[in-house]
Amino acid sequence: MIKLINDNAKNNSGRFDLLFTDPPFEMSGSDLLSVLNCYGYDHLLLICSAHQMLDLYKLSDLDFAWQMVLDFKTPTKNRSYAQPHILHANIAYFRKKGVKSAFDRRKVVRQDHYSDSDNHYYPSIFHAPKNNMQYKYQKNQAMIDDLLGAFDVQTVCDPFAGSGTTGLAALEHGMDCTLIEQCADAFAIMQSNFQMLGEV
User: Fold this and answer.
1) How confident is the model over 19-33, as a mean pLDDT?
2) Which end of the chain is more exposed for a tag (fewer CB within 10 A), N or C?
3) DSSP state of 193
4) pLDDT for 57 beyond 90
5) Tell me: the pLDDT tens digits for 97-150?
6) How many structural domains comprise the chain?
7) What is the CATH number of the domain that holds 163?
8) Distances (CA, A) of 3 to 17, 65, 179, 184, 191
9) Cβ(46)–Cβ(91) below 8 Å
10) What is the C-alpha to C-alpha distance for residues 16 and 156, in angstroms, rounded to an integer?
11) 3-class DSSP state of 85
12) Is 155 left (phi over 0), alpha (psi -120 to 50) or beta?
C-alpha cells in the first residue's frame, strides 16, 4: 500500500520500520531531529550533508551504523561564492539503540559486478547521475531501489518525499510506504505517477 500526504512532515506521525529520506541540505541537524522525533521507527536511512549526519550523531540517541557516498558526478549550481560546489552527498544509516541491523547486502543482486553465494557485491560509493528528471531534486531510481532493497523491513516512511522515488522503490520490493511532501508541484508529480500505476 502506498499512502500520499500533501503536508508538512512535522504535522504527521506514525510508526514505521524504516524512515528513508532526503531532507533539504540547508536544514540544520536540530531541525531535522525535531521532524524525525514526530515518528516512531527503528531504522533511519538518510541522504544528507556531512553536517546533518554529524549533528544527528551528537544530538540524538541513535547508533551510527555506516556511511556511504552518493556521487552525483556533476556539481550542483551553488549560488554562494562562500561555498564550494557539491559533487556528492552522504548516505548514512542509523538505528535505535539495542536494535539489530536490518541491512543485508545479500538481499540485492547487482548485475553490474560479479557476485557469488559467499560475496554479494554492494558499493560504498553509488555513482548515481540524475537522468530523466521530472522534478529538480529527484534522485536516481536504480540507486534508491538498491538502497531500500537491501533492508529487511516491511513499512517505510519518507517525510520529505519529493516526487516519490522512495515509494516506487517500496513498490518494487513489496513494502508499504507513506510519502509526505509539502511542495504542491512535487506532490502533483508524485500523485500523477502513482495514479498511473493504480497504487495510491
Assistant:
1) 93
2) N
3) H
4) yes
5) 999 999 998 888 766 666 666 777 888 887 776 666 666 566 778 889 999 999
6) 1
7) 3.40.50.150
8) 15, 28, 6, 16, 10
9) yes
10) 6
11) coil
12) beta
